[in-house]
Amino acid sequence: MSTNLTAVLQQLLQNTSNLKMLQQLMTPAATYVSLNFDNPELKKIEPWAGTHTGPQALSDVFAAIQRFWKTLDFKVTDTIEQGSRVAFFGSFTYKSNVTGKEITSPFGLLARFEGGKVAYVQFLEDSYGTAGSFKTGGKTRFHSDPSGKEVEV
Hints:
Blueprint: H1 5-14, H2 19-25, E1 26-34, H3 40-45, E2 50-53, H4 55-68, E3 69-82, E4 85-96, E5 102-114, E6 117-125, H5 127-132, E7 141-142, E8 151-152
Parallel strand pairs: 1-6
Antiparallel strand pairs: 1-2, 3-4, 4-5, 5-6, 7-8
């Protein structure tokens, strides 16, 4: 491929609020998966979670994220480009605009390209940690260890 796909993906991440640029960098039906395919419970806390279609949807997702958090740091530490796919790995630090709590999370991002344009993006992070930056009280009970006891956090 003659296009440097890593550079295209970097440009996309630097222009998430610029719809005209997103339309140039993405296919019209590009899919963006944020954290999961469809989790109604997480969507109550992080409304952008789930599957979205098209450049406008990506712009809307990042606008929502910036309404909820201030980005204190976002760094890509590793990049892998293979054929029509690019993966970024790194970490970010967000600060909740409501609670003031900060969260640092690792992330992984996979992008697939068609004709030099982004056709699919999947973004994964520590969703438990990021959602926790909005927690204002209460406890939740979990029982994950079959030979252990229930825990409360």
